[in-house]
Amino acid sequence: MVTMELDSAEGLRISPPAKSFDDVHYSRLIHTIGKEAVEALHRSKVLILGCRGVGAEIAKNLICSGIGGVGLVDEDVVSNKDLGAHMFLKEGDVGQNRAVATARNLSELNPSAEIVTLSVTALEASIKNYHVVAATVGSFPYLVHLNNLCRSVGVYFVAAIAHGIFSFVFVDLGEMFSFVDQTAEPVGLLLVESITQDCPATITVVEEQRHGLADGDEVIFYGVRGMEEVNKTVPYPVSVTGTSSFTIPVDSRTFGRYISGGYFHKLKRAKDLAFLPLGQSLNSPDICTFDSANASLIPHLHIGFQALDEFETRKNGASITGGGSAFSEQDLDELLKVANELWDHSVFAGKEAAHSNGKIDTADVVKDGQLEERPIFEIRSSGSKLRQEKDSQDGLKSRLSDFETDGRGMAPDEDGGSQDVGISTRTREGPVKKMSEAEGRNDKIDSTIVRFLAQSWHTELCPIAAIIGGVASQEVIKAISKVLVPLHQWLYFDAMDCLPSQQLPPEDRAASDSRYDFQISLFGRNFQQSLKDSKWLVVGAGGIGSELLKNLVLMGVGCSSEGQIVVTDMDNVSKSNLTNQALYQIEDIGRPKTPTAARALRRLNPAAQIHALQEKFELDSESVFDSSFFESISVDTASSRLYIDMRCVSYRRPMIDGGKHGTKGSVQVFVPFNSEMYASTQDAPEHKEIPICTLRNFPYATEHTIQWAVTMFESLFKQRPLDVNAYLSSRDYQDNIRKSAPTARLPILETLRDALVRQRPLSFEACVQWARLQFEELFSNNIKQLLFNFPPGMTTTAGAPFWSGTKRIPTPVIFDPSQRLHIDFIVAASNLQATVYGLKGCQDRLLLVDIIHKMDIPHFEPKEGVKIAISDNELRGSTQRRGYHSADDNDAIDTCAALLKELPTPATLAGYRLSPIEFQKDDEHNFHAEFVAAAANLRASNYGIPFAEKLQARLVGGQVIPAMITSTAVVGGLMCLELYKLLLQKPLADHRHTYFNLALPLFCYAQPLKAVEHTVTRVQGTPLTWTLWDRFEMDCVDMKLEKFLAEFKRQHGLDITMISYGKSLLYAEFLPRKKLQDRMSLTLLELITVVGKVTIPAIESKAIFSISCTDANDNDVEVPDVVAKIR
């Protein structure tokens, strides 16, 4: 709902939305920061000063994240230039009030958020009605005044200011701010191996885990058997004695002896941070920098921003929302004088920055009536240790556990800036090195930085707005939720690496009242045309894809008759997408993503040339994504990264890869002929795979019980119906069953027999009976059999207790209709069974209980000879032995024969089919999450494991990845900065892999690795030097294999010993002579079609062959592929 109050002075009153809080809608966000934090956002409201690009990004991120209300203040009107960095302004909004136009279009994102526009005169009186003020415009004197006003009424303050390629975020959360959770990561449960009867008591964790505690951390125990005295809600402080042990200050000698079981977790304690107001912090800044190499640049930016602000005030007068005219050379001279005056009176003059928490000087600050000594200025680099690894990407990644992602899977003057001041770029080593000379002393402000800043002052870039808007809105969320570590207190971000290497003529940067004027003033008109004419393939239109596509069309990429953006994604829009995918709205739920995104993008920029596909980018779609697609550049935001990487390298196209996971994100760029490829460095898997035997028989953590329940859902309601349908419709399936080993055939036939004969329901009552029998089988009989095989007190061959460590003694669950959890399982399972068989379900619990009471549950007796594997190695061994005939096979043959007789033939059930069920995470009434939650918690009851919530079951079952639009926006912006560099053909040294975690906040850069060069000695000529980007290119139309071998040796001085195409071996010296003779007379195209049995699409004129060769010394050598023209 939008309320216009431009003439009102009484501000805004927002009540919590009448609509109830929707767990499914916000599930990805809850997965990231927790439900309490999201509910706090739902009850809060934020006032945003300034509705240019950064202000719009902050509003977008907060509204998608469920903020209760937003107030917008901006009295300027929309200009054409605003359209280049603002996704909520349309061409028809030009000339209208910017706040009103922004509010009108923002309201489509989330109808439950109340959006209000306020006049500047009403601003100060309305502040008390908000929880946070986010200022994106304003002079420093005004921001200081606004910050002081916020402090006086207990309102948090965030400033996020962007000028072209330069920006900063400042945070003030009051004299003392407490936050309760530093990372919002789930609390990991650790298993107790033993507890000594001693003073102090020593606790040892199981061998498979490390406790990760530090001295002074506090832990809480529960589920300990024997020594129940430690199972208290009171936390115990720990003293670490090893990676797997610690002590607690308890005299346990009088306690009961520890028997088994038990968990503990680390208690999250609130931490306090003190903040200075902006007025004091300007002169005594606490600055967080991205990396130590950039630290010496920060003081010059800090003073440079103040100098530009002071100069503008002197020239044009004070202004709240900005503005001003372009800078002439005379202006620049005056500006440098102002900058040097401020520098000489600053704490930086003649001093070296206090880095990595070192302090150079102190000043007295009054706090709570006491004099407190603090550093005059301090530049902190949380990632300085990580930075030391930048020369080795593997080393860098190995230290980036906090950064790993789901994939390893972005009022100005009217003249558009000065037309008199040229602009050029520099490497990081340039000004930074110069600034740190003279024995590390900062004697003078760097004039180059000031000139760059002046050039950018009246401009705004879409990628910078996305990045700084993402960071700032994350800080607003931290202030409201009291979750995650707030920024303390300054963060500067610049993109000088993106600027053109050569000075641009004034006419190339002249304004023309277009939506791209800001971008043109920095990069030039010719570069803007190259953006418009470029062609991009974007894989994925989800969270990152949405942000990236939005940025691309705002920048003008692919927005000419020569340009194009091709986007492909198979998914449909789901409810949980709406919190981090701003291109989609509530009415889009269920629609395919790519055409929906294309329509939204054309509304942002009518010139956008969007080609929407619904194809998965993989080997099977190569007929769609043929070589013509790779005449353009590729951007990857999807999970099939290795395949995309291979295709980009094959066609020598760059790839920009974006990944995210909650508050974490990464951007990597791969540059043809310069960098290594994505596959060159393998990241460790994000999630360790759970052993099969752990899931089946020996779970010890909540994630094990949930994953087991998901597996049961897939087995009972998806795979079982699929198997039945295949049996009824596919003769090949029937033949495969008959050909398989008897022991492998038996469980399949039993499943088919039960589904079609013994357990085939004809009524819902039969579905209830089936569900009750499943309960007995899964949670009682199977446990009884397990305990029969491995009874309590059993020891291993080494004499150790079998049930110890991660193996927890289970207990069968006795069905009790008065237990809600038990009936939850029956309701969910019976209704899902009814869906599979096309029957009408029922949720009447009394009716279900009545049906169950009439049942006779068969008595279970454990069986002798049942084999249960206790490790995955043992399980694999038993699987491999199925290929050999054994005594078990004799019994299985007879049983299979009997089952086949009992099974109805497909002909007798012609047309009969079951309905397989795909897990749907966003439907609250389909019993999917209910089944997984109930099954997981009954399994947990068996093993004494903590229960899971239904939302947790929904997230795991739906494979939902934690997501926040804040980190998604930062990834999208960073990807576009790398795009600038690619189109400008920047050197590899200017490109950056970026890894960040907004929770801390922490950023880390790494330069892409240079492509490895290989050298091969040839029979004649100079040695061959090549990288992974090189290819042998030959015209081989109608060329026979024999001639190809000879021609290759003549041209390249190497003997080919083997040729393959895809997975097909076409030629090898070791093949039988007859085969070699037959193939020598075939053309290369015939080799592919006849020998390889692969059909090349008619539109493809080239084929890529992998070859092996011997060099001049007859040694086997690795060489590039051959790209052969075959048509």
UniProtKB/TrEMBL annotation:
**Top-rank taxon, per record:** Eukaryota
What is the protein's name according to its record?
A: Uncharacterized protein
